[in-house]
Amino acid sequence: MNPTNNIVCESFGWHGEKEIFKFQITNSHGNYVELINYGAIVKSIVVPDKVGNKENVVLGFPTLEGYVKDQSYIGATVGRFANRISNAAFPIENKIYHLDKNDGKNNNHSGSAGFNNKVFDFIVEEDAVIFCLESKNGEGGFPGNLKTKVTYKWTDQNELKIEFLAEADESTPLNFTNHSYFNLSACQDKIVNHRLSVKASKILESTADYIPTGKIIPADGYLFLNNRLADIMQEKGLNLYYVLDRDSVNEKPVCELLEEKSGRMMCVYTSYPGVQLYTGDYLNCNIVGEHNKLYSSFDGLCLECQYYPDSPNHEHFPNTIFQSGQVYQETIIYAFDVIQ
């Protein structure tokens, strides 16, 4: 429990006939996160730099309109199945299930069934905001009625803790993540000068449309050991799945991100077996309205802790088919600090 936290809830607009709420969780240092129940989205994370300036370090929009029109999953909870499923189809036992083809011939982030644009119910506890969603059997082509909870906690140590809980009434693929775009300079600069370490020596080999071939290969030229992103990116974006070195999972940070000018650092901890690094090369958000907001390539990067993409189509990948009544439970922690 963290009784020093203060949680404030206020209206953030309407989506159809459903009211959307914004939740601000403030810790004892006055640092805070903002969440909305549309998409179970992380709207902002406000933390100090090395001289004490408190600024938002994730991309977001000032109004609900921005999130409704957004096509880049900014800040969103992604489910039922994060990342891509090849040919928008997968087998369970002897039956083939067909999903929306929303990424060429493939399915990405669950298509029309995606949680990023769903309105969640919510529970506010003393130290947490819990978003709840029920997804019906057949939605987007996915089998089973699914109940999901996404729990957010914000600690005095400036840790955003996210827990995913889910259970379905028949076998279904599950893979949840958070799709926040981080920029520790508070968008004063592009992310290319951020320094990144990923505790992984292997990646998934993928095709040009980001579908795994099934091979797990050495990271080689994509090894991040406190490298500047620009040194690895070489003027083009990255969209890579890193297979985490097992001894680092849950015990030590699986990723460390540093922006030297501000002194801000973020450490990532997770129970998941890997992380998708996406450097935001397809970002192109110009939301027209009272408050225009423009984002472009490399304004933020995602560190999406998750199971392997396209897992249902690769028997040797970690299993993501959860049986009826089997509980899905995974965690992601984004922890913020400063160095001088």
Report on this model:
With 340 residues, the protein is mainly beta. It has a single domain (6-338), classed as Distorted Sandwich (Beta-galactosidase, Chain A, domain 5), CATH 2.70.98.10. The protein is built from two helices and 29 strands. It has a nine-stranded antiparallel sheet. A hairpin with a 2-residue loop joins strand 1 (6-15) and strand 2 (18-26). The longest helix has 6 residues, at 64-69. The protein starts with 5 loop residues before the first strand and ends with a strand. The model has no long low-confidence stretch (mean pLDDT 94).
Structure summary:
With 340 residues, the protein is mainly β.
Mean of pLDDT:
94
Radius of gyration: 19 Å
Q: Tell me the number of strands.
A: 29
**What do we call the CATH topology?**
Beta-galactosidase, Chain A, domain 5
Family: Belongs to the aldose epimerase family.
GO molecular function: aldose 1-epimerase activity; carbohydrate binding
Enzyme class: isomerase
Pfam families: Aldose_epim (PF01263)
Structural key phrases:
single chain; 5-stranded antiparallel sheet; 340 residues; mainly beta; Beta-galactosidase, Chain A, domain 5
Element layout with pairings:
Elements: E1 6-15, E2 18-26, E3 32-36, E4 41-48, E5 54-56, H1 64-69, E6 76-78, E7 84-85, E8 89-92, E9 95-98, E10 107-108, E11 121-124, E12 129-135, E13 146-154, E14 159-168, E15 172-173, E16 177-179, E17 195-198, E18 202-206, E19 212-218, E20 225-228, H2 229-233, E21 239-243, E22 255-259, E23 264-270, E24 274-278, E25 285-287, E26 293-295, E27 302-306, E28 321-322, E29 328-338
Antiparallel strand pairs: 1-2, 2-3, 3-4, 4-5, 6-16, 7-10, 8-9, 11-12, 12-13, 13-14, 14-29, 15-28, 17-20, 17-22, 18-19, 18-21, 21-24, 22-23, 23-29, 24-27, 25-26
